[in-house]
């Protein structure tokens, strides 16, 4: 479907994608302006629609590229995961924070796409959300050591609880993370990590033997 776009030089593709990413990450799908995109990219508006057909196709193409970039990053940085649930989620959280700091605009777009789903693309998103969630859960559960859980604990519900705590902490710091330079990020990452560890220690007393 996008052969006309993929045939142009890589540098031109990147310039157009960067302009799209900036506009969609700042304004979301509904409020994003294709006029602003073509102005930033330095191309005629007709050229953009020649490549993608319409705004929806453009957004979904960009989203699929963002999903691929994020999943590639997490897999590359999760080659040797800890067997313990808490250690694994802590590791995953650090990987995610590093991605946010290195790719703040991309992550902002990626995150908002799944949190604030526009009605016009809900059907298309419904085909992407379960697949992405399933891949993430598969990575989380692979070779996980469940022997430390107390007898009678519903492991699936326990995992969901721990994950929600991690998500809550992460989302609280997300605005700061997206504004940070990688060279200045270590102190904040360590502070977040310390807070996560404190909360995980509390959860362990209720879930672990």
Walk me through this protein's architecture.
By secondary structure, the chain is mainly α. It has a single domain, classed as Tetracycline Repressor, domain 2, CATH 1.10.357. Helix 2 packs antiparallel against helix 3, helix 5 packs across helix 7 and helix 6 crosses helix 7. The longest helix has 25 residues. The protein is elongated and about 65 Å long. The mean pLDDT is 90.
What's a concise summary of this model?
The protein contains eleven helices and no strands.
**Low-pLDDT residue intervals, each spanning 5 or more residues:** none
* Mean of all residue-level pLDDT scores: 90
Give the overall shape, derived from the CA principal axes.
elongated
Count of helical regions: 11
Q: Roughly what fraction of the amino acids lie in strands? A: under 5%
For the CA atoms, what is the radius of gyration? 20 Å
CATH class: Mainly Alpha
Q: How many domains, in number, for the residues? A: 1
The proportion of residues forming helix, as a percent range, comes to over 70%
Give the CA-CA distance, first to last residue. 54 Å
- What's the SSE pattern? HHHHHHHHHHH
Task: Briefly note the structural class of the backbone.
Answer: mainly alpha
* CATH overall fold name: Tetracycline Repressor, domain 2
Total strands: 0
Taking the sheet with the most strands, its summary is:
none
CATH architecture: Orthogonal Bundle
